[in-house]
From TrEMBL, chain A:
It comes from Marinithermofilum abyssi. Keywords: ATP-binding, Nucleotide-binding, Transport. SUPFAM superfamilies: P-loop containing nucleoside triphosphate hydrolases (SSF52540). PANTHER family: AMINO ACID ABC TRANSPORTER ATP-BINDING PROTEIN, CONSERVED COMPONENT OF ABC TRANSPORTER FOR NATURAL AMINO ACIDS-RELATED. Residues 5-237 form the ABC transporter domain. This is ABC transporter ATP-binding protein.
UniProtKB/TrEMBL annotation, chain B:
GO terms for molecular function: branched-chain amino acid transmembrane transporter activity. This is Amino acid ABC transporter permease. Keywords: Cell membrane, Membrane, Transmembrane, Transmembrane helix. The chain crosses the membrane at residues 21-36, 42-61, 68-89, 95-117, 124-143, 170-190, 259-281, 301-324. It is found in: Cell membrane. It is a multi-pass membrane protein. GO terms for cellular component: plasma membrane. The lineage of its organism: Bacteria, Bacillati, Bacillota, Bacilli, Bacillales. InterPro entries: ABC_transp_permease, LivM-like. It comes from Marinithermofilum abyssi.
Length: 244, 334
């Protein structure tokens, strides 16, 4: 069977800067892939290229056996690939539940069904007691959860998470990890950008490391975090005994 | 449980009147013109208020619910006024049909502007609406064989239902009320429909809406076409009611701004906001005309300015949301 997602030679230039440089990888159904790399490595740009928010300059993306390179984001989303945003993007004039209803509507036939499903998703991520809250004063931890809830309500088969743990306190990180494990168990394939290394190494069984827009390493999490090149470029000075 | 209580509270306030409230409102709206039968001045004000409420309500569908800040809705208003008037004067077509024709034309124009400008990020849509209304004004002024230029079009008085011309003001009142209900009911429907949720999502965050699978350009183009059509209906009715139309008024920037202001004063993205805003602005306008007879031009502009400043300073969210918040205890901000 073909992989769920195939990315081949994906490249994006902004003027003289090559933000994403000839990146290729595949993701199988049920995988949990982590993407790490220093700031400016091209992680979010890579997400934008795959999910249709930016057109690539070169390369190809295939999802569910279909070439989707250059497709608009909404079409890709309807095919079952959606994303969250690093800077949360709630619908500010709608309350928490309505935010999720908008998403659930995309895969429901009636508003009533969408409202019921939104309730279910809110319970799933643990936001049910905030359903009537306005977005304005929602704390960051809940905003990140809402971001996840919206994405889940579209019933994706592949979900891109862009730093859903950024800015969270450690108990919130634990909470979010629990939710993500449940998402994984429900059969959603996940690709996640994360700086909270302790979280990403526990969750994902594969890691892709980007550095200056290019693929530096790709493999099982265990191998990648011991790769000397990765350690030098991103993980920083580590006790040499711990590497190998 | 909390949900149930919220629902009960919603029923009791302004924005969500109860069934009894609807009944009372319907009765009042039906009786009102008959009560004012001998005070034509007030009835006239009321009809104009309903007329502008229709236009402001139409603007609000795109501007308030969709975040599409059109600054040239006079273009659609003028298309409605000119289409029905010219069809009636030149070809003796019933203004009712003319109203439909104007709505279709304006809808197509709105769709066209939307298709071109709403794909782009930036202020192009708002600028394009201003440009189109200016171009239409210049066309109406200079295409004298068709439009009689700046003289304007006079609609001959031939009373009768087919000609949408009546001896009494009461039928005009009910026509204005009916047109006014179109954007009001559509706005209510937006809160209960997939399209409405998509529209509000697009307004609040376009990228997030796309990520969820919403075809944002289509949503925006549809609402601008609908909004344009209803604005044209108001324009066609205006022409029939006032019986003379002039390019310098119908396509003017001040007509465009009037719609925006009424919606803003009443409350952007609320169903009853534009109606309320129109009642306040039109009522004040009539009152000031009364008080400062003869000098109304400058006074009117000052009034708009002061009113807007006051609203922005003290009730930036608009009157309806402000009232709603004051009368809804316990729920807190929303």
């Amino acid at each position: 069977m073909a992989p769920l997602l195939t990315v081949e030679h994906l490249t994006k230039r902004f003027g003289g800067l090559t933000a994403v440089n000839d990146v290729s990888f595949t993701v199988e159904e049920g995988d949990f892939l982590g993407i790490i790399g220093p700031n400016g490595a091209g992680k979010t740009t890579l997400f934008n290229l795959i999910t249709g928010f930016l057109p690539p300059d070169a390369g190809e993306v295939r999802f569910k056996d279909q070439p989707i390179t250059g497709w608009k984001a909404y079409k890709i989303s309807r095919l079952g690939m959606t994303r969250t945003f690093q800077i949360t993007k709630p619908f500010g004039h709608l309350d928490v539940k309505e935010n999720v209803v908008v998403a659930a509507l995309q895969t429901s036939s009636t508003l009533r069904e969408a409202r019921e499903r939104a309730e279910g998703v809110l319970r799933f991520v643990g936001l049910e007691s905030y359903r009537d809250r306005s977005i304005t004063h929602l704390p960051m931890g809940l905003k990140k959860k809402l971001e996840l809830a919206k994405a889940l309500a579209t019933r994706p088969s592949l979900l891109f998470l862009d730093e859903v743990m950024g800015g969270l306190a450690s108990d919130e990180v634990q909470d979010m990890m629990e939710v993500l494990r449940k998402v994984r168990e429900s059969g959603v394939t996940l690709i996640m950008i994360e700086h909270v290394l302790q979280a990403i190494t526990q969750l994902s069984e594969r890691l892709l490391v980007l550095h200056h827009g290019a693929k530096l390493a790709h493999g099982s999490t265990r191998e990648v975090i011991r790769d000397p090149e990765v350690v030098e470029a991103y993980l920083g000075e580590v006790d040499p005994d711990a590497v190998h | 449980m909390m949900n149930v209580m919220t629902e009960v509270k919603k029923q009791r306030n302004f924005a969500y009147p109860s069934a009894r409230g609807y009944g009372a409102a319907a009765l009042l709206l039906t009786l009102l013109p008959f009560l004012l039968q001998n005070q034509l001045y007030y009835l006239d004000t009321l009809i104009l208020a309903l007329l502008w409420a229709s236009a402001a309500g139409a603007w609000n569908l795109a501007g308030g619910y969709g975040g599409l800040l059109s600054l040239g809705h006079a273009a659609f208003f003028g298309i409605g006024a000119y289409t029905s008037s010219l069809l009636f004067v030149k070809l003796n077509v019933s203004p009712w049909l003319g109203m439909v024709a104007g709505a279709v034309l304006a809808g197509l124009m709105g769709w066209f502007i939307g298709m071109i400008t709403l794909r782009m990020k930036g202020p192009f849509f708002g600028l394009a609406t201003i440009a189109i209304s200016e171009v239409l004004m210049i066309t109406a002024v200079n295409w004298t064989e068709l439009t009689q230029g700046s003289q304007g079009v006079n609609i001959p008085y031939k009373p009768g239902f087919v000609n949408m011309a009546f001896d009494s003001k009461i039928p005009y009142y009910f026509i204005a009320l009916a047109i006014c209900l179109v954007p009001y009911l559509l706005a209510r429907w937006l809160k209960e429909s997939k399209f409405g949720y998509e529209l509000m999502a697009v307004r609040d965050n376009e990228a997030a809406a796309q990520a969820l699978g919403i075809h944002t350009v289509r949503v925006k183009v549809v609402i601008i076409a609908v909004s344009s059509s209803i604005t044209a209906m108001a324009g066609a009715f205006y022409a029939q009611y006032v019986t003379v139309i002039e390019p310098y008024h119908e396509f003017s920037f001040s007509v465009s701004i009037q719609m925006v202001l009424m919606a803003m004063i009443g409350g952007l993205g609320t169903a009853s906001g534009p109606i309320f805003g129109s009642l306040v602005v039109t009522g004040l306008d009539t009152f000031l005309r009364d008080v400062f007879q003869g000098a109304q031009g400058g006074i009117q502009a000052m009034m708009y300015g002061s009113l807007l400043v006051l609203v922005v300073l003290f009730v930036p969210e608009g009157l309806i949301p402000w009232f709603t918040r004051r009368f809804r205890s316990g729920k807190g901000e929303k």
